[in-house]
Amino acid sequence: MNTGSYILNVVTVPDANHEAAEANVTIVVNKVDSTLTVSDAVVRYGETAVVPVSAQGADSINATLLGYPDAVINYLSDGITISGLAAGNYTLKVTAVPDANHNAAEATANIAVNRVIVTNDNFNEYFNENGELIQDLPELIFTGEFADKHFNINKPVNLVGEGEEFTNVQFTVRSDNVSIINM
After folding, report:
1. Using CA atoms, how far apart are residues 27 and 19, in angstroms rounded to an integer?
2. What residues contact 122, with CB distance under 8 A and at least 6 apart?
3. pLDDT at position 183
4. Alpha helix (H) ranges present in the chain?
5. Which residues does 180 contact at the CB level (< 8 Å), separation at least 6?
6. Residues 69, 31: contact at Cβ < 8 Å?
7. Alpha-carbon separation of residue 29 from 2, 64, 76, 99, 116 (angstroms)
């Protein structure tokens, strides 16, 4: 039954020894809370966060990234995507917009956007055997020791040094919009 107030008319069907009886009863169906489940997300800087969302008793959902109005939020059938985030930690507030039989529900999720740190050990995750950058990321942070490497920078990117040490290393830049900072 949908929410609301209903009058139920009850009439007995008597046997031969009784008379019929009739009474009205009011039945009230109250709204129940919507259910809303939102999961946390961890991504690398430059990636789109995908946040699974499950809602029952809701016509739609609304989402707000607290303190970061420039975030680009898109709604999917089973979640939310968020892009355009700087490295850091964020709180996503999701509200279930209820249908006629439910109350609104709210939930939050933590979104962590991690900086991309390049070390000698994970070098091949970001560069191929020829030293060409193989991922589209806005920024790479170099830390640790690098020896006998050739970097072919073929995409726009910010390369930032933080405690890096280069020995016999060559950088070849073959793209516009490349920044080399602190190296």
Report:
1. 25
2. none
3. 87
4. 123-126
5. 159, 171, 173
6. no
7. 7, 32, 32, 14, 53
Whole-angstrom distance, CA of residue 119 vs CA of residue 171: 16
Q: Which two tokens stand for residue 2?
A: 């949908």
What tens digit of pLDDT does each residue of 105-118 get? 999 999 999 989 99
Residue 170: its H or E element: strand 170-173
CB 120 within 8 Å of CB 144: yes
Question: For residue 101, what is the DSSP state?
Answer: T
Q: Per residue, what are the HEC states of 8-42?
A: EEEECCCCCCCCCCEEEEEEEECCEECEEEECCEE
DSSP state of 86: P
Q: What whole-number distance in Å separates Cα of residue 91 and Cα of residue 40? A: 9
Read off the tokens for 84: 């355009």
**Pairwise CA distance, residues 87 & 104, whole Å:** 31
The arithmetic mean of pLDDT across residues 65-87, rounded, is: 89
